[in-house]
């Protein structure tokens, strides 16, 4: 390992120069982006999160958008997938209805998501992460946990400096920015990565965990959403410090297994390891309509189109899914999910669509829907996918035909060949807003 100085003096995140005690700016490059912490060189567990990922990729690819507020989403009835930081200054947030986002920021540029591009860039970043450590646990296409323990000899630097160098490499080679949270456990590493975005680098050490958490709201704890927070507040609990003063048995009696989580995480106790096999748990695509739809004539072509998008992502990622999941949202915002497990994992658009269609047909009772989505879960390696069907010879023929269509689309574009389900169908809704992973 190379020379390191006093962790309280730290280093410059821009040029990595080791710093003099109490300096406010880097004595080598003048940057104010210095990182200091008394546990700086003993921590090795990190959470890396790309900053406004979809928007950042679009701004990278179109410099004219760089200084403009940008929203990634779709249609007046759609929602915001992500927004750049300029748009966020105006109050735009992810999952906000598009009409509210445009009320808050009427001058924003709105682009439909390009999930295939985002997945491709996410995969490039993932590969660079794996050059740091094999212990990479992806949470989605734009964030992951990394455990760099024991890598000092390999990199000749402690994890903190390796991560700072990595952030600079992402900016130089990929053209977007990331934020880093460094800690001793997953919970606090993820909390830290949310600080000082964009281009953040925050550290939470073990010695300070209790005092750091004491005055934070209970919603900081993973799993405490609005509904459960309301339950806690009704019981007089708003701050994590209040949980720190309670016994584990009392919390479990009141809140079951969630009580145990409250007890442990409120004290910074998190023994979960970084699991390198923790890939995304599902692949899906969905769209919100401009007008509520109820008939098979309207919904089936959309379902087919979404199934093809999911299939392309599975094939590009070398993965397959065993369970097909259909998602519907009614006009009054109630969400229905239906799923069916297959005998073998699949990558095929045809199989995903036909299974989804069977699930959809049971819901076509005149109910109007504002959203439809299709996806697969229980992911597996592509080598286990779609063995020849010895019972249904037509399924095998359709698989062969789909392979031929894929080759044509790879050469001439996704619109080069269309199936009878989508050919000549007038699109009544915007393209899918994105995919969930």
From TrEMBL:
Coiled-coil regions listed in the entry: none
Subcellular location: Cytoplasm
GO biological process entries: DNA repair; DNA-templated DNA replication; error-prone translesion synthesis; SOS response
Catalytic activity line of the entry: DNA(n) + a 2'-deoxyribonucleoside 5'-triphosphate = DNA(n+1) + diphosphate
Pfam families, per the entry: IMS, IMS_C
Active site: 143
Keyword Aminoacyl-tRNA synthetase: no
Main location: cytoplasm
Record keywords, A-Z: Cytoplasm, DNA damage, DNA repair, DNA replication, DNA-binding, DNA-directed DNA polymerase, Magnesium, Metal-binding, Mutator protein, Nucleotidyltransferase, Transferase
UmuC domain span: 45-225
Subunit structure comment from the entry: Monomer.
Purpose: Poorly processive, error-prone DNA polymerase involved in untargeted mutagenesis. Copies undamaged DNA at stalled replication forks, which arise in vivo from mismatched or misaligned primer ends. These misaligned primers can be extended by PolIV. Exhibits no 3'-5' exonuclease (proofreading) activity. May be involved in translesional synthesis, in conjunction with the beta clamp from PolIII.
Family label: Belongs to the DNA polymerase type-Y family.
Protein name: DNA polymerase IV
